[in-house]
Specification:
Heat Shock Protein 90; five-stranded mixed beta sheet; 2 domains; two-stranded antiparallel ribbon; 223 residues; alpha+beta
Length: 223
């Protein structure tokens, strides 16, 4: 049964990834004015289309990896890489969603982060989904996104989220649910984030503090 589910997820992921990739391709062509000039009013919805399509791809790939057997998971390419440009790009993309939800994002990335060891694509997906979960639960709030080196890892923290450390914690609620608890959209994203960071020998945690929750990701520094 497990093998059949893995086969089904692999086929489903492929079939869904193909049209979403086409959407992203046409969105890029429209943004570049290939089919005619797009004014500033048109660029914002195009950016939202791109952000939403990327989120769908990340969710599809994440569910496939978490729920499938190893042979059906996406291949990784772990190596040392600079996390700073990936973080900056993820934050820039997330601003589209944050603005629409009246969420203010304040980034604070250390001037020189050391290289981390892992797969850049998995790292990007983890950050994208973590930011999406934070923004989704923090309407009208200010999110502080910080990144700094701590001992043997780079730590990325998202403070001021509306995440619920019990309801949304993937340690309590996994992809199959846990007892009477219902898996939330934020919980699904965080389950994938935790899986991706652990595949890079890092981890993820939710830390309650003063009525809000801080989402923390740690990825090991390259030795």
């Amino acid at each position: 049964m497990t093998d059949r589910i893995g086969d089904m997820l692999a086929v489903l992921a492929h079939e869904m990834r193909t049209p979403i990739s086409a959407i992203l391709g046409y969105q890029e062509l429209l943004s570049e004015g290939i089919f005619g000039e797009i004014d500033d009013r048109g660029q914002e919805p195009l950016a939202r289309i791109a952000y939403s399509a990327r989120q769908l791809l990340h969710l599809i790939d994440g569910v496939q990896e978490v729920a499938s057997s190893p042979e059906h998971r996406l291949e990784a390419n772990p190596h040392p890489f600079d996390p700073t440009p990936v973080l900056e790009d993820c934050i820039r993309n997330a601003l589209t969603d944050a603005t629409g939800r009246n969420v203010h994002v304040e980034p604070s990335i250390a001037a020189e982060l050391p290289p981390v060891h892992g797969d850049p694509d998995r790292f990007c997906r983890a950050i994208d989904l973590a930011l999406a979960a934070a923004i989704k639960t923090s309407h009208g709030a200010t999110l502080e996104v910080a990144a700094e080196a701590k001992q043997d890892a780079v730590e990325i923290s998202i403070s001021g989220t509306g995440l619920n450390a019990q309801k949304d914690d993937p340690g309590a609620v996994d992809l199959r649910g846990n007892g009477s608890k219902q898996l939330t959209g934020a919980g699904l994203r965080l389950a994938i984030v935790r899986y991706l960071t652990r595949q890079m020998d890092g981890d993820m945690a939710l830390l309650p503090a003063g009525g809000t929750t801080t989402l923390v990701l740690q990825v090991p520094i390259s030795s």
